[in-house]
Amino acid sequence: MLGTGPLVLALVRYAGSPACDAALRSYRAHLQPELPRLGAHLVAVSPQASQRLAAVKHREELGYLVASDPRHVLIDALNIGFGHPGADVVLGTGRSVLPFASVVVVDRAGVVRFAEVRAGWSGPIPPGRVIDTVRCLTNPSTY
């Protein structure tokens, strides 16, 4: 994906979490329409098993990729996870690591250009700064 444009990673805990489902809907409404016009890709990432994520992708009619990170490799690499006893049951992976609410923008070279990480899930990360960052990466002459 990086070969064709910047990547916007939206990390969510698990399908069925009201806060995460609301974030996925917000990203569908605000990021999904704009990012392809800018040549960028939106991917939601969760440590939940992929078969459980498929249900939310279809239920919420998400037109972007929803990927599973069951071994929390990305979460660990970005140092944005925390242990939560009992999460292994809802994740279906035998692991109990959840991500903080996070959005990360990666440029075509694989360099993180923007990251917002929140300890609480009070609401989705506002899309404006994400879109501005992507605009700057795809059309630097406008900034």
Explain the overall architecture.
This protein has one domain: Glutaredoxin (3-Layer(aba) Sandwich), CATH 3.40.30. It is 35% helix and 24% strand. The chain is built from six helices and seven strands; from the N terminus they run βααβαβαβαβββα. A five-stranded mixed beta sheet has the order 3-2-1-6-7. A two-stranded antiparallel sheet has the order 4-5. It is globular and about 50 Å long. This is AhpC/TSA family protein. Residues 6-114 form the Alkyl hydroperoxide reductase subunit C/ Thiol specific antioxidant domain.
Structure in a nutshell:
GO terms for molecular function: antioxidant activity; oxidoreductase activity. This protein is α/β, with parallel strands linked by helices and 143 residues long.
Largest sheet: 5 strands, mixed
Mean pLDDT: 89
- Name of the CATH architecture: 3-Layer(aba) Sandwich
Order of helices and strands: EHHEHEHEHEEEH
- In the CATH scheme, the class would be Alpha Beta
CATH homologous superfamily heading: Glutaredoxin
User: Which regions contain 5 or more consecutive residues with pLDDT less than 50?
Assistant: none
Spatial extent as radius of gyration: 15 Å
Number of domains: 1
Q: Going across the biggest sheet, name each strand in turn.
A: 3-2-1-6-7
Q: What is the rounded distance between the termini? A: 24 Å
Helix content: 25-40%
How many helices? The count is: 6
* CATH fold topology: Glutaredoxin
